[in-house]
Design a protein that fits this description.
It comes from Aegilops tauschii subsp. strangulata (Goatgrass). This is Aminotransferase-like plant mobile domain-containing protein. The protein contains eleven helices and five strands. By secondary structure, the chain is mainly alpha-helical. The chain has one domain. The chain has a three-stranded antiparallel β-sheet with strand order 1-2-3. A hairpin with a 2-residue loop joins β2 and β3. α4 crosses α9, α6 crosses α8 and α7 packs across α8.
């Protein structure tokens, strides 16, 4: 990592600590709903108090798209060592395979009113109330809501949508600091079909986009201040494919 950039204050919307704090308090009924949409592995997410941002930045400079894979498939390499959607599924226990989550360039300006209405309805938001802070606050409120007499069908559907929004934006695939990426909203139109989408592939796709942004900034001499995508996966992925050992890299403290 270039020394001239090593002093910069780096931030990231990827916060496994925020996710752990919420899901660790789920009731048995809520845990079962998480399992029903294929995200049960996240119930075992350990507490990560800190994710090294400088180390993540360094790793993102080493990421490249795997050109040997089909153009439609998301796969990457860290200095030649590959990682695939299946690796994400192993690390986080989220769905792999199935229908692809709609790509950003396919839905830009084309996210259906049905998808937006489903998410807003689940989170209790009004039309146009789409700031990142407001959406995540609303999602967290839905997830923490208590039900003394059990959850009605409407409550269960809202919980599923809120859960995916919360974990995507706080852990699996955050794209922005101030706003929410709408592309995956298309996969939330029908809450009972959430598990039929390839969320692991979506995680890889956003990591590759983030790496491209970082590398383009470095090539143009621009500073990098925000890191997007699941930077935690790049760090813990060594449990699946030990690229860190092969690279002989060291950890950078923030």
């Amino acid at each position: 990592m270039p020394r001239s950039r090593s002093h910069l204050k780096l931030t990231s919307p990827c916060s496994p600590k925020a996710v752990h704090k919420v899901i660790s308090r789920f009731s048995p009924e809520k845990k079962q709903l998480v399992r029903s949409i294929g995200f049960g592995g996240l119930l075992e997410l350990p507490l990560h108090r800190k994710v090294g941002h400088r180390f993540s930045l360094w790793l993102l400079t080493k990421v490249a798209r795997d050109a040997t894979r089909a153009q439609s498939a998301a796969a990457g390499k860290v200095a030649g060592i590959p990682f695939y959607p299946h690796d994400v599924s192993i690390v986080f226990g989220v769905p792999s395979g199935g229908r692809p989550v709609p790509k950003k360039d396919q839905v830009q300006g084309l996210v259906s009113d049905e998808a937006k209405a489903t998410v807003r309805g689940a989170l209790g938001l009004d039309e146009g109330d789409d700031s990142r802070l407001r959406i995540l606050h609303a999602a967290k409120h839905v997830l923490k809501k208590r039900f003394r007499r059990g959850m009605a069908e409407k409550d269960r559907a809202a919980f599923k949508v809120a859960f995916v929004v919360f974990v995507v934006e706080n852990l699996l695939a955050p794209r922005e600091v101030d706003s929410i990426s709408l592309d995956y909203f298309m996969a939330l139109r029908r809450p009972d079909e959430i598990q039929t989408y390839d969320w692991s592939e979506y995680v890889i796709r956003v990591i590759l986009d983030s790496a491209c942004q970082v590398q383009a900034a470095f090539a143009q001499g621009r500073p990098v201040e925000n890191l997007f995508g699941c930077i935690l996966f790049l760090q813990v992925g060594r449990a699946i494919r030990p690229w860190f050992l092969l690279l002989g890299c060291r950890v950078f403290d923030d």
